[in-house]
Amino acid sequence: MTEKISGRIIKVHKAGWGFISSKEIEFTRIFFHWTSLRQDTLQFPELKTGMIVEFTPIKIPDKGYRAVHVMVTDKREKKEVEDVIITDEEAALPNDLPTLPQ
Predict the structure, then answer these.
(1) What distances in angstroms separate CA 95 from CA 7, 72, 91, one per listed residue?
(2) pTM of structure
């Protein structure tokens, strides 16, 4: 596979690498390195999880796919869902809501 495909950044590590997922290569994390970014796109420290990218996938024997010629095409980030934390006070409140009939 040598044509360009699109995907979404799913992980960016401060050490200069990350992973992309793509519908064209399902159930696979596609590795990329900061050196594979095109010069006319964002710099590596500007990349965020959820950004849409275009890239060329290369199959590396015994390792999987690697993305080269990576370029950001959509800078919007997906909204992360924050964990809901219940305080001890909230947990101790009486539960006076009606229950569903059995």
Answers:
(1) 45, 49, 9
(2) 0.71
